[in-house]
Amino acid sequence: MNLAALRDRLDYQIVLLGATALLAAALLAGANALTRPAIAAAEARDLTESLAQVLPVGSFDNDLATEALSLDTAQGPVTVWRARKEGATTAVVLRLAQPGYSGLIHIVVGIAPDGQVLGVRVLKHTETPGLGDKIETAKGDWIHGFAGKSLTAPEPARWAVKKDGGVFDQFTGATITPRAVVNGVKRALELFANERARLLGEEK
Amino acid sequence: MNARQITRDGLWDKNVVFTQMLALCPALAVTSTATNGLGMGLASLVVLLGANVLIAALRHVISPDVRIPVFILLIATLVTLVDLAMNAWLHDLHRVLGLFIALIVANCAILGRAEAFASRSPVADSALDGLMMGLGFTFALVVVGGVREILGSGTLFADAHLLLGEAFRFMELTLIPDYKGYLLMILPPGGFLALGFLLALKRLIDQRLAERAARSQAANAAPAVA
Predict the structure, then answer these.
(1) pLDDT band of B209, cuts 50, 70, 90
(2) Chain A residue whose CA is closest to B82
(3) Could you tell me if residue B108 is inside a domain?
(4) A8, A16, A34: best mutation site toward chain B, by most B Cβ within 10 Å?
């Protein structure tokens, strides 16, 4: 068989290209089937870890990742997870995205049934490195300042950075990023206040 | 082509970034720290090696007329396989590198090596070429990342333990204590600046090397004339 002559034939090229595509598709399908359970398990573990960060240690005994409900709001969907201990809801965790200086800032907010913030963490952001990234726990402890706050303390008008007459610090050279996070947390609290019964699972 | 020349080409003479000026998008995008450069470099090395071996093995079967789509298909498949496998079994590493893995498909250096080398060379040579080009790319990324990190944040190999494991925590150095940081170097313009100065430096070194080679050649030639 003369491979060199065969390679110049159009029908050979068509078959070659088709065979390569088929091989690629088969490999990817196989790999996808093989890795899917492991990836799903790893992602569920990631999610549980990130949710547990905003809840007090030992405050829940359920599998957080399995109990999610979704709320549709004007600013996009918000996912809510319920933390329970011995059947009673001890907290809810809201995940929402707030537009920051460059792109969306994804945060999780843990809220106690009485409306107090238990903790806030930034999951994902694309803010300016060195300026806006102080919202990460790795770069600063600013984000811990939300613990214990609620819609009544401080009062709603003071839910803003100091530059806007609020109680929260801004960073040198970056006001938009902390302002976005403050607004995001406030939005989570307002959402919780409006949908309290449903989020706590008190109505059927 | 002999192994020595392939090694020299990959690491220095035809370095992907510093000489061929290929793959500048990943080279500039991820090198805000030396650790990021190292991670991207190593991930690219794996794909480059795999793609070179695969394409060299299939080089007699692939028609020259349809080689580009075939190469791209093979490279993209390889990248996706690496991505899936890492996500499943090296999940913590994937969280650090995951962003870069998909970018490797767009790394023109890999298609470049497939086209320029692997499609016309035996498998063993192609494997060595992939390895050396990958190492050269990793070297370039670590150097660019290192320069930017030192000037931008005063550290070197920050967060290396996330990439390499706890045993490598000793690599994380703070070179300039209490450094306020020089933001420009971490932002994209810093990548261009660092790369520009490094390119100039490489030209300077190559020039010196060429001068020295010419001098020693002249010195060798002179006695023969006399």
Answers:
(1) very high
(2) A31
(3) yes
(4) A16
- Which strand ranges, in their side-by-side order, compose the sheet holding A68-73? A68-73, A76-85, A88-99, A104-111, A117-124
Return the structure tokens found at B115.
Answer: 């086209």
Report CA-CA distances (Å) from A19 to B70, B172, B192. 10, 48, 42
Q: How confident is the model at residue B226 (pLDDT cuts 50, 70, 90)?
A: very low
Do residues A92 and A153 both lie within one domain?
Answer: yes
Q: How many CB atoms lie within 10 A of CB B206?
A: 14
Per-residue pLDDT at B122? 94
A5 CB near a chain B CB, below 8 Å? no
Range of the domain at B77: 3-215
Q: What total of structural domains would you count in chain B?
A: 1
pLDDT of residue B224: 55
Q: How many domains does chain A have?
A: 2
Least confident of A21-35, A38-52, B177-191: B177-191
The pLDDT tens digits for A174-186 are: 889 999 999 999 9
The reply to whether A81 and A175 lie within a common domain is yes
Q: How far is A148 from chain B (nearest CA, A)?
A: 31
Name the residue facing B183 among A17, A39, A131 (closest C-beta): A131
On whether both A114 and A160 belong to a single domain, the answer is yes
Tokens read off for B12? 């220095």
**Residue of A20, A22, A123 to mutate when probing chain B, most B C-beta within 10 A:** A20
- ipTM summary value: 0.75
Residues spanned by the domain of A191: 64-200
